[in-house]
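User: Okay, second chain of the day. Same drill as before: sequence in, structure tokens out.
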Amino acid sequence: MSVWRSETLCAKLPTLIQPFSADRIKHAAYELSLGSEYFLTSESTGTKTLIKPGDQIAIPPGQFALLITEEIVEVPADALGLISIRFKYKEPGLINISGFHVDPGFRGRLKFSVYNAGPTPIHLTSGCPVFLLWFLGLDQQTSDVYLGDRKNQASLSDRDTMMLAGQVTSPASLKSDIEKLRSEVSHLKWIGTAVFAVLLGVLVRSCPSIDRPNAPPNPHGGTANQATQPARPETPPPVKNQSSARESIRPPRSKSDPNRSGDPETQPSLPR
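Assistant: Same drill. Structure tokens below.
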């Protein structure tokens, strides 16, 4: 098995590709153009769209597209086709998720299922080269050729569009939804904090004031707070003079005491 070189392509492809242009042969591959219809999962119509040569389509990030070639391709029984997408469209994130080969004996337009894995929309123009096709020669002609229902296909069928129809959630839309939810949660936090503060204020105002308990009585007199203060030394009462002190300690005499007299000088003095 060997890949057909550019000279072989120039010799054989005029009868295998319609319409054919020798200018599309580059580096042992043939460049195929984007056809006149496509299908996008991001479009709300859910149906394929027809376009004219020169019209542009945009595949959004995270979305699938179903594309078809402008050329009708025939693969002989002694060869096998390999298909891909030009690097200028692969580089921003366009991925071919359909088959990568064309069976011997196939004839018709080629369909490509693609996915935009990049962060930005990818633009394609109808009639411009988008796809690549290589031919690999078999060791000899085979009788096991393609006879399936896609032989001689010329457009996107209802079955093709139904297989990709439906809402596709892209990573970009998921990120947008997450940021939106994060903003809403942050807003709810502020509201919850404000409501809690208001309720707490109402609760404090509605509760009766609580008096501080009285201090327990001190057994030594005063309150417990006073008991904790250091005791002050007691100051003795002042003594006027010694005679007053002596008189204050004299025992009283009875009226019948013979020694009692009205004159204080006649009274005997106490021993000192």
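Residues 2-164 form a domain with the Deoxyuridine 5'-Triphosphate Nucleotidohydrolase; Chain A fold (CATH 2.70.40.10).

User: Thanks, on to the next one.
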